[in-house]
Amino acid sequence: MRRLILGVALAVLVNLAIFAPSVRLGATGIAFDAFGGAGGTPGSSQTASITVGASATAIIACVSDDYSSVADLSVTYNGASMTEVVTNDDTAAHKLTLFYKASPTSGTHNIVATNTIDPYVRSVVGASYTGSSVTSQPEASNGCAAVSCAVTVVTANAWTILCGVDRSGNMAAGASTTERGTDGLFTTGWMGEFDSNVAVTTGSHSLAIYSGANVPNTVIVSLAPAAGGAAPANVLANAVSGGS
User: Fold this and answer.
1) Rounded to an integer, what distance in angstroms lies between the CA atom of residue 126 and that of residue 200?
2) For residue 221, with 0-12 CB atoms within 10 Å meaning exposed, 13-18 middle and 19 or more buried, which class applies?
3) Residue 29: which residues within 8 A CB-CB, separation 6 or more?
4) Are 125 and 189 in contact (CB under 8 A)?
5) Is the distance from CB of 235 to CB of 10 less than 8 angstroms?
6) With contact defined as beta carbons under 8 Å apart, do 60 and 129 qualify?
7) CA distance 97 to 113
8) Any idea what DSSP says for residue 172?
9) 160 exposed, middle or buried (CB, 10 Å; 0-12, 13-18, 19+)?
10) CA-CA distance, 200 to 121, in Å (whole number)?
11) CA–CA distance, 98 with 148 (Å, rounded to integer)
12) Structure-derived torsion over alpha carbons of residues 66, 68, 74, 76, reported in degrees to the nearest 10
């Protein structure tokens, strides 16, 4: 009986090596962790509080900045600088800029957006994630003066993350898009942060804010998983059973 059990176990390991080389024990893939957002009358700075979990691997923050120069805009998390990834102007020249930081300190801390040269910072939002790679991130980005924006995903099982502005202040998610929160301005938000809420394949993927947005502005990134993250759930079952 013991030999039979050992033989079955060996067969499972062989099947895993042959049929599912991408499986890594303990890999969980990317997941949403926490959100924070704030806004007000445009000024030299805006501050949002966020409670980041111990397993967080990334923070994606976005800033709505009326008519300001992005060169004068800075964003910090817990006092440490975040890296600018992509910026986009809407048709009225309002700017939306996305920032990134890997391996954020856990706990309750502030995301602070500052522009003392052109003091027109309206709002800041940020979301933290677990399970992402902490190198060469985000892997791709894009900006669109439209309700929908697409990005070309490079790594399988990545997540797409989007920030959007609706100048009417009626922010909501579009199709196949999950809202994580807004800056709390006006009716339902001037700016919000959204994501795919699932791992996606390689190639072009879009997220969107709601179709009635006024002078919309969106930016999007692809966040790659840590090595071996988010293998499809059926891969292990197929490997054990010998299926394809």
Assistant:
1) 21
2) buried
3) 131, 157, 199, 225, 229, 230, 231
4) no
5) no
6) yes
7) 11
8) -
9) buried
10) 33
11) 16
12) -10
CA dihedral (20, 26, 28, 30) in degrees, to 10, reads -100
Fill in the DSSP letter of residue 187. T
- Token pair listed for 84: 């600018």
Phi and psi at 13, nearest 5°, equal -65, -40
Tokens of 46: 């805006």
Nearest to 141 by CA among 116, 114, 161: 161
Paired sense of beta strands 83-89 and 159-165, if any:
unpaired
Per the CB < 8 A criterion, the answer to whether 203 and 177 are in contact is no
pLDDT tens sequence across 105-155: 999 999 999 998 888 999 999 999 999 999 999 999 999 999 999 999 999
Q: Which two tokens stand for residue 210?
A: 């709601």
Q: Are 157 and 230 in contact (CB under 8 A)?
A: yes
- Cα separation, 240 vs 224, in Å, equals 27
Query: Mind giving me the DSSP string for 107-159?
Result: EEEEEEEE-SSS--EEEEEEEEEESB-SSS-SSEEEEESSSEEEEEE-STTBE
Q: Which residues, in sequence order, are CB contacts of 136 under 8 Å at separation 6+?
A: 224
Over residues 95-105, the pLDDT tens digits come to 999 999 999 99
∠ CA(53), CA(219), CA(217), 5° rounding?
Answer: 125
**What is the model's pTM?**
0.83
